[in-house]
Amino acid sequence: SLLLSVNQTFFQASMATEYDRKRLENIRRNDEMMAALNVHAKASLLSAATKRPRAESKKKKKKTTNKPETPAVIRKSLRSRGLNPDGSSDKPKRMAPPQNASPPV
């Protein structure tokens, strides 16, 4: 079957490039060698002998994780919460600019 299609293609390719002609000739020779060795029949026997019925695959269960009831507390620094390092909520007072003895000139 493959040999006939190769031969037909070979005759159609008489005007093809040299590369195509060599390729088709190589395919034809390989097909003849395979037919002489009866490779196709042996391959089909081997594949039929080694086939096993596939076991039915079990569906995997998705693991469910228990989510904590209370969300995790996100830590924030005292500075970002507006607290002093000692923990009091009194915001530091801004310092007044220094008073010079003489006014600016």
Automatic annotation (TrEMBL):
One cellular-component annotation, GO: nucleus
GO biological process: regulation of DNA damage checkpoint
Keywords, sorted A to Z: Repeat, WD repeat
InterPro entries linked: WD_repeat_DNA-damage-binding (IPR050853)
Molecular-function GO terms, alphabetical: DNA binding
Region (Disordered): 44-105
Name listed for the protein in its UniProt record: Uncharacterized protein
Organism of derivation: Noccaea caerulescens
